């Protein structure tokens, strides 16, 4: 272009008239900078993964996972608690509109709508912008989801009885009882098993009856009159059966 003389166009043979697809060059054209995916790169990834896997396995051997006591189907007072990443769903099922007859709504429908909306967000908001302010649908759904999860998790942690959960999860030492013994049938008839556990080892709702320095007459009195949260009149048998059951409980673990 010359000043004051107008504009002149010059052709350049280096610029193709037809655009070619953007195909990356072969890695061999960059010696020392790239490598073949198979087997070079993938083999290195596997080796690094194997080192971390072995380290993790060694950690699990040195520090075993903390386990609770053996599951007891007769312990009606046990309150199961999920891991921390499911606490928000656990809290959701406590509300009246998502519990009881509406459990299906809280367990399937509401989480399904929430996660479905997150899955559909990229297809609904297909704009090229990367800034959150320019993508209101995706940003709004994500912020709403994160805020809901944080709030429900906080509610679950703040209002859970952690002392009771810690106590009910303790591994209790107990002597297995002979379930074929006639005294065991009396324990079941007197509803002792449903509260104190299948081996009278205790539960979240009732203390252990094993290893206690209890006299048969004290046990019989509690069975008839109740104590604390235990109501009176739970045992419906005869006095002879009550005596037999009380002596059986008092002598557990004694020679």
Structural descriptors:
47% helix, 255 residues, 9 helices, elongated, Cytochrome Bc1 Complex, Chain D, domain 2, mainly alpha
Please provide a written account of the structure:
The chain is mostly helical. Among the domains are: 84-168, no CATH class; 182-250, Cytochrome c-like domain (Cytochrome Bc1 Complex, Chain D, domain 2, Orthogonal Bundle). Helices cover 47% and strands 0% of the residues. The chain has helices at 37-62, 87-92, 103-124, 136-158, 162-168, 182-189, 192-196, 216-225, 239-250. Helix 3 (103-124) packs antiparallel against helix 4 and helix 6 crosses helix 9. The longest helix is centred in the N-terminal third of the chain and has 26 residues, at 37-62. It starts with 36 loop residues before the first helix and ends in a 5-residue tail after the last helix. The model has no long low-confidence stretch (mean pLDDT 79).
In short:
With 255 residues, this protein is mainly α. Helix content is 47%, strand content 0%.
Q: Tell me the β content.
A: under 5%
Question: What is the molecular shape?
Answer: elongated
Largest sheet features: none
> Topology as H/E string?
HHHHHHHHH
- What's the alpha carbon Rg, rounded to whole Å? 35 Å
What is the helix content?
Answer: 40-55%
Total helices: the number is 9
SS-based class: mainly alpha
The total count of strands amounts to 0
Distance between the termini: 114 Å
Which secondary structure elements does this structure contain, and how are they paired or packed?
Blueprint: H1 37-62, H2 87-92, H3 103-124, H4 136-158, H5 162-168, H6 182-189, H7 192-196, H8 216-225, H9 239-250
Helix pairs in contact: 3-4, 6-9, 8-9
């Amino acid at each position: 272009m010359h000043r004051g003389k107008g504009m002149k166009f010059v052709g350049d043979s280096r610029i193709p008239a037809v655009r070619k697809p953007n195909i990356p060059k072969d890695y061999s054209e960059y010696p020392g900078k790239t490598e073949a995916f198979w087997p070079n790169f993938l083999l290195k990834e596997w080796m690094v993964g194997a080192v971390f896997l072995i380290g993790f396995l060694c950690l699990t051997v040195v520090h075993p996972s903390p386990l609770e006591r053996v599951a007891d189907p007769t312990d009606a007072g046990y309150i199961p608690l999920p891991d921390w990443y499911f606490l928000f769903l656990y809290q959701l099922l406590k509300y009246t509109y998502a519990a009881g007859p509406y459990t299906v709504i809280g367990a399937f429908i509401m989480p399904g709508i929430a996660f479905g909306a997150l899955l559909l967000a990229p297809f609904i908001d297909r704009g090229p912008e990367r800034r959150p302010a320019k993508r209101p649908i995706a940003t709004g759904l994500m912020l709403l989801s994160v805020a809901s999860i944080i709030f429900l998790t906080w509610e679950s942690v703040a209002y859970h009885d952690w002392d009771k959960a810690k106590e009910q999860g303790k591994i209790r030492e107990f002597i297995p009882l002979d379930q074929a013994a006639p005294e065991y049938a009396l324990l079941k008839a007197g509803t002792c098993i449903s509260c104190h556990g299948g081996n009278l080892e205790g539960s979240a709702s009732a203390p252990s009856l094993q290893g206690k320095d209890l006299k048969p007459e004290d046990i019989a009195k509690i069975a008839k009159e109740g104590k604390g949260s235990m109501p009176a009149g739970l045992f419906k048998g005869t006095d002879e059966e009550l005596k037999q059951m009380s002596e059986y409980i008092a002598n557990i673990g004694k020679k």
